[in-house]
């Protein structure tokens, strides 16, 4: 067990992580405590690309068939897109399938990818690398996920889909082994969790089919897999991405990816720098949550990254206009749940783990899974066909094929950057066949951590307090904490949390851990490594605009 900064003893975070409160998340249908009850044909949890593509395809199938379908989408953000954060360079493939009558120029993209460059960085230098095939983006488009989500939402509404924003799903309503809907989180509780006069109780939404499209580290998807004992070959693993949007004085004419500095060699990750417009640049740093050092802090590393000679001249005189953070499921093929369908329920997009990490792509896989889910749901409602048809369609598609091709690439980096890079290169050359087999991974919380000093401060850095302000976070100060933490964690563990959380929610004090829950921007890193995250009052959290 770590005793304090400077000690080299190791500890494992899983020992301090409360279990998922399954008894609270899985709720028998008809349980007391709900206000209103609404009946739908199909309920979709999460208005991201996966959930909205599902809603659009389903509404269109129903319309073409002359069938009335009552489709509802629940979203915890107060308005569409406010909890959406991505890079993003988008592969348009799923857009083309969902909107066959539209041209690429009709989609909510900012610009086609033109030039691109990949660099290996050292503290003061850079080497331009040949772009690996998995990172080639010719034919893809630069976009803001917030804008994509708002555009998809308007298409869904145009087809008669009901969008309920500001309503987080907090519990799965079940009957026997089946899912029959969700219960939402209450609003208007005081700090002690007691209802206040203006508050609203939870609502029950029941449906013939519930599609869980909650994105990364989905609470209900996790709970369903545990409850129904749906295994995966490897546990899911995650990375944390911290992102800033900059209005720059200098134009940028290419997308850039970097590897190496400022990450330690035993951490996996890299940066992206994408021009949404020549003078509006999205930049971010993504780091695997299996890093070893207590003092590693992704937010601080991003601040250091901006000081590199590659970035500094670009950002000089510019202004950071938005900030945000989110995790990415990185496990790939071997971390997919054995099935993503069950009695009355489907898992879509990031909630299922459909992300290809070597290419940093998840948006088109999320949308494609939403399209397949809609087709399976429609057949299920029409003729009673099994929802397992969804798994069959995903498994027969490029979604599975792409993830299979890169199945061991991220996992090879558990051995460190250089050995990992060598193996990943050979995997690329052999189409994933070298060295064959399956790399085993530990869950991120099981990885041994070692004490280390905090990252040294960076001159001119954006503080975590300022960063949270720039996320637009408008959480009411007086809501109860939505984070479930163990009592009395050792100092090293408290210090780990304080560096892990990009929003400064955790503070290691002499007496242990102080939790400033309203700062949370729902990145979910805490749920992977530390205190559990649960849904809070609708509309809490960030208000991203162009992330
Ligand atoms: C830093 C970063 C960079 C990335 N770069 C790229 C890139 O360049 N290209 C690319 O293709 N992919 C990229 N990705 C991945 C991509 O963003 C995701 O794969 C994609 O957004 C997944 O879509 P989704 O619909 O499954 O989930 P999300 O986009 O996360 O949407 C899920 C929605 O569900 C809502 N929700 C969650 N829980 C609840 C609940 N309980 N109740 C109600 N609503 C809920 C959330 O608020 C959210 O709006 C990146 C990701 C990150 C974090
Ligand atoms: S508390 Fe957890 S989910 Fe919230 S911002 Fe911090 S690490 Fe992310």
Short structural description:
The chain is α+β, with helices and mostly antiparallel strands and 547 residues long. Helix content is 26%, strand content 25%.
pLDDT under 50 segments (min length 5)?
1-7
How many separate helices? 16
Give the overall average pLDDT: 94
Task: Summarize the biggest pleated sheet.
Answer: 9 strands, mixed
Number of strands: 27
Helix content: 25-40%
Indicate the structural class.
alpha+beta
Chemical compounds bound to the protein: flavin-adenine dinucleotide, iron/sulfur cluster
Radius of gyration: 22 Å
Shape: globular
Q: Percent of residues in beta strands?
A: 25-35%
State the end-to-end CA separation.
39 Å
Please tell me about this protein's structure.
The chain is an alpha+beta fold. 26% of the residues lie in helices and 25% in strands. The strands form 7 sheets. Strands 2, 3, 4, 10, 11, 12, 15, 21 and 22 form a 9-stranded mixed sheet that branches. A hairpin with a 5-residue loop joins strand 13 and strand 14. The protein is globular, with a radius of gyration of 22 Å. 52% of the residues are buried. Iron/sulfur cluster binds next to helix 16.
